[in-house]
Amino acid sequence: MDYIYSILTLTGITMIGVMGTYMVTGLTGQFSFGQAAFMAVGGYVSAMLALRFNLPFPLAAIAGSAAAMLAGLLVGVPTVRLRRDYISLVTFGFGEAIISVLNNSAQLTGGAEGLVNIPKRVDLPLVLGSVIGCLLLVACYKNSKYGRQCLALRSDELAARSMGIDVNRLKLVTFLFASAITGYAGVLYAFYAQYLEPGYFNWTVSAEWLIIVFVGGINSLTGAMVSALILSSLPELLRFASAWRIIIYCVIVLIIINYRPNGIFGDWEISRLWKKSAKGEKA
Amino acid sequence: MNAPDQATPSSGHLEVTGLCKAFGGVQAVNGFSFDAKPGEIVGIIGPNGAGKTTAFNLVTGVYTPDSGSVVLDGVALGGQRQDEIARQGVGRTFQNIRLFKGLNVLENVMTASDPYADYNFLAAVLSLPAKRRSDRQAAEKAREYLDLVGLRGLEDDRPEALPYGLQRKLELARALALRPKVILLDEPAAGLNPSEVREFIDLVKRLHERFNFTIVFIEHRMEVVMNLSHKLFVMSFGKLLASGAPEAVRRNPEVIEAYIGEEE
Amino acid sequence: MLQNIFFGLSLGAVYSLIAVGFALVFNILKFSNFSHGGVMSFTAYAGYYAYIRLFDGHVSSSWMFFAVVTTAAVIGALTAVAIERVGFRRLRRNQAPVIYYFISSITLGILLENIITIFASSNFYSYPVFFSSDNLSLLGTTFSVADVVTLLVSSASLAGLLLVLYRSKLGLAVRTVSFDVNTASLMGIDADRVVMATFAMSGALGGISGVFLGMNYSLYPQLGQLVVKGFIASVIGGLGSITGAVIGALLLGIVEVALIGMVGSGWMPACVFVIMLVFLLVRPRGISGVIVQEKA
Fold first, then answer.
1. What is the DSSP code string of B135-170?
2. pLDDT confidence of residue A283
3. Nearest Cα residue in chain C from A243
4. Residue C157 predicted with pLDDT over 50
5. Which of A72, B128, C64, C177 has the most CB within a 10 Å radius?
6. pLDDT in tens, B219-238
7. Mutate which of A87, A250, A255, A256 to test chain C, going by most C C-beta atoms within 10 A?
8. Contact criterion met (CB < 8 Å) for A166 and B115
9. Least CA distance to A143: which residue of chain B?
10. Which among C195, C210, C279, C179 has a CA at the least distance from the CA of C49?
């Protein structure tokens, strides 16, 4: 039971991380290879504040997300105006840089041995509540003028600009929002696992999130969430070795990309179910 | 923030003077000038490769002109960003239709009014009443534009699934939602069949009457050019070759010369 | 000082092989090919196995290095061609948007990495010492033989590549396709073949750099992640420009060696990142100054 409980908790945290990736990739069409680094920033900042300054958990959580957002600002400002490839590079570089900083400031962060003795403040109900809360925020964002303009710029930047959309600003806003949410996933992880090490946040985690989003379909938040739920919990339950798990992911992605490029869910959203029924009532 | 719903007759005065742009060694636009008075319908014609689309791209800020000025109602647009220019009331359509694929027909139109939507980030993620009201109004307005171009009932369709002629209309509706003072149409009748062309001419006339905006269009089809334009500019090798009333321009020997070997 | 610069140049030479392999594909298909890293890891291991299974005891030790490099280059070329078939050909047929190429390349990179992890069980192997640890003395400084060979072999490979690109019919076709794949095929160029040839060249370079990386760092499945050095170099040099990539790579090599001297290897990645950010802010077009716009 404990085992399942912990898988569910970690899956929930992954789902929140995937939401960040979904926003950057699914909404603005950019690829973040360092999304996990924002998780590291959120986790480390909140944990260090709690350990060194006895900050209560809610405040530490807010500070962690804010710090991740600040890091997003640092990465986002120079890159949003450039070709999409650059943001992948810069986020990748940022991820490596964060890991190198964490490893090399042992007095503060515990270095490669990790940061230990973080108080346990997170349990399954809190994670589930957070998943639902974050999901609502992201879904509303997608369903607002921000989301519409993001999808427009993802589809055609030039046309989006000529419809008066401030593409760079929108990319930045979305990127910051995504960073904050990913940072919050880091906070949850830190106060659940009670232990942080730099190696946990390397780029393969970011790449795994990207793959998850892609399998579900980059147009569908529902798809991304279902795919996160399945792809991160099922292999754990079946106790696959992680390398095999990733190989299976990769093969799925290759098949999807070649034969069903819109992902399993296409652009279907679960919210259509009640939208449709509402329409039916009107008629 | 809120642009006027209807352009007043005194706005929408576009003056373009001495526009130049070179790509590599090729002088794509070389000192081209034209102007459109408020409420006027202006055609730009010229052989393929004359630089017409590039001129549009310079006016709308896709490219920065090497020299020359673009002035809308006394405000210089040169050097402004593409989206800033658009929000000052310059709408456009594209030669090779560029709709937003991830969005449905209604949302495509809404995106053009979204930059004016009056709610902030917080209202968006919490779906506050202000946001819902604003979005509802935008959708209402967008439906109205779709209605005007004859796309009622297709709100939930995918734009790429529409027939070609309807895609052109959708692009037009999207440009309307920007509430433009000037609207630039790049070969709006390309790829339409003869009956669609006639329908299109009527549509543009109707929209012009209703919104009274300035229209500048690039077109090869003489039927469209002669039926719509109040004034014609002929472009050749990046330069202004001739301008004036459509009939006079059509009889201009220089213009005929430029078109030899080009006319279909 | 001179010694450090030389060490930086030799490191930069390896980076330039990566960067050029990267730039070749970028030139043609206009996306950043991250599967190149997978090719590098894969060939580094392939070279190692070739050494263990085929050459050890059969090839005289002075030729060993060249036997391994050649094998790696050939295997790299084949792998890259296979990657093109599996990952990109169908996308090209469907005229898929660039992001799909991108995702496909990441996926293939990760796939190769994990295949290696499974079969080589993420143990650390290392190449034999091909060159005696003797140093050459010149101008009052000493240079290690390995560095000299690295520099020479890299330069020779790049020179060979340039020869193919600028002096052969195939090279002309490659350069034509890099302007526009669709137009080129209208002009009677077999785009499939040209793309395949480009991947082969890029893969061969990846194979050579894989061996060098394996020699410098010992073998591990994530070795190919050093592809990011090639990407950084391309950014500094200007995406898509081959000369730019080489210059950017040499600069990066020297800067890294200098930084290791100044701040230590632990902090070096963070410093490189900051330098790159500043560079992107100040001169986003890179040294070569060409900017590749996303297709309008």
1. HHHHHHHHHHHHHHHT-TT-TTS-GGGS-HHHHHHH
2. 42
3. C114
4. yes
5. A72
6. 988 889 999 999 999 999 99
7. A250
8. yes
9. B124
10. C210
CB B100 within 8 A of CB B159: yes
pLDDT per residue as tens digits for the range C187-214: 777 888 899 999 999 999 999 999 999 8
Model's pTM, two decimal places? 0.86
DSSP code at position B127: T
Instruction: Return the percentage of chain A with pLDDT > 90, whole number.
Output: 53
A163:B81 CB<8 A: no
Q: Which of residues 140-169 of A touch C (CB under 8 A)?
A: 157-158
Contact call for A164 and B178, based on CB within 8 A: yes
Residue window 49-108, chain B: list those with CB within 8 Å of chain A: 60-62, 81-83, 86-87, 91-92, 94, 98-103, 107-108
Q: Do C280 and A90 touch (CB under 8 A)?
A: yes
* Token couple for B173: 């509706």
Two tokens, residue A283: 């008629």
Suggest the residue from A74, A156, A171, A247 to mutate for an interface test with chain C (most C CBs closer than 10 A): A247
- Residue A265 CB partners (closer than 8 Å, separation 6+): A216, A217, A219, A220, A222, A223, A226, A227
Q: How far apart are CA C251 and CA C12, in angstroms?
A: 7
Q: Give the residue from chain C lying closest to A86, CA to CA.
A: C235
The answer to whether the Cβ–Cβ distance between B119 and A141 falls below 8 Å is no
- Per-residue pLDDT reduced to its tens digit, C244-295: 889 999 999 999 999 988 888 888 888 888 888 888 778 777 776 654 444 3
Beta-carbon contacts of residue A217 (< 8 Å; ≥ 6 apart): A223, A224, A262, A263, A264, A265, A266, A267, A268
**Could you tell me which chains touch chain B, where touching means 3 or more CB pairs under 8 A?**
A
Angle of the C191-217 helix axis to the C35-49 helix axis, nearest 10: 60
The encoded tokens of residue B149 equal: 């171009």
Q: Does B130 touch chain A (CB under 8 A)?
A: no
Residue in the block written with tokens 């992640």: C225
- The complex's ipTM? 0.90
**Residue A17 and residue A23 in contact, taking contact as beta carbons nearer than 8 Å:** no
Query: Could you tell me if A18 and A225 are in contact, meaning their C-beta atoms sit under 8 angstroms apart?
Result: yes
Return d(Cα B186, Cα B175) in angstroms, integer. Answer: 12
